[in-house]
Amino acid sequence: MTPGPAALLSATFVVTGLTHLIRPRTFDAIVPRTLPGPARAWTIGSGLTELVLAGAVWNRRTRRVAGLASAAFLVAVFPANVRTVRILRGRSARARAIAWARLPLQVPLVMLALRAAADPR
């Protein structure tokens, strides 16, 4: 049996949330400078948000609201992905390719979040 959208989204958020907490320096540089306060606070905050969303999407009682909140969160962090492309202009072709690939990947992730919101499993 294949995992449903809620399980896939939850697993994705666990991995990315933990990565934000374990390797915050990787994400600090992509925090848009227009946000107030230190970049590290935004990195840790987004990692914790992803972990909370992972748990809320996993739970059937909170799944609908959490799926919708996840979609909004994924849209909200898109500017950081755009910033990554700009930051990595002078880096390796591999790093640039990964950064560019993340931009259109955001669309299926938002769609996954919306499907998770409707997932009865």
UniProtKB/TrEMBL annotation:
Domain Methylamine utilisation protein MauE: 7-87
Presence of the UniProt keyword Kinase in the record: no
Signal peptide stretch: none
Transmembrane regions: 6-22, 42-59, 65-85
Domain of life: Bacteria
InterPro entries (alphabetical): Methylamine_util_MauE
Topology within the bilayer: Multi-pass membrane protein
Record bears the keyword Transmembrane: yes
Subcellular location: Membrane
Stretches of the chain forming a coiled coil according to its record: none
Name of this protein: Methylamine utilisation protein MauE domain-containing protein
